[in-house]
Amino acid sequence: MRYVRAAVDEPTARAVSSRGWWRGVLSRLRGAAIPLKAECVWLPVYIVTIPILERRAAADFQCSVDGLSGAFAIFAMPEAIVSGETPGEGFAPRLTAQEAERIARASLVTAMLRRRRKSPTAQLGESGPVELLRWPYWVFYHRRGESMDIDVIDAATGDRAGHKIKLGLLDAFRTAARGAATTEGK
What's the structural domain count of the chain? Predict the structure, then answer.
């Protein structure tokens, strides 16, 4: 299986996780967060290649669609893709390749409309192959009072993950826990 190389180590990701002016405000209001553990998880991501045909030129766009939440992004890191076994555990995708392609096409049209603020003159061509990759994320678990929370940092770019990624990851944890509970109950 192919995957995206993790370029950010745990200490760097932890620094990104603890950064932000709101962290100090929240710790004063709700109490300091107690770090519990950190792990690197590998989420399924579909890479969809879509040609855009304009009047005089054509260009291929690679889009990534998260296999758990359906989060969309323009993929601009082909040099980070590595072949082989992922260094850690991964989750099974919840979306099919056809659903990921549909999301990529619709989201790309929306992005073109937002960028140009008018109806696009470009047409989308037939999609190329849809490839399933594994994408690394650092997950930091912490406790604040009686509640627990996680921070999710993209291990490939070092950016904080979006809300859809966090919700997809929490859903994957919940599904895995249910599966483990039913296996133990038998």
Answer: 1
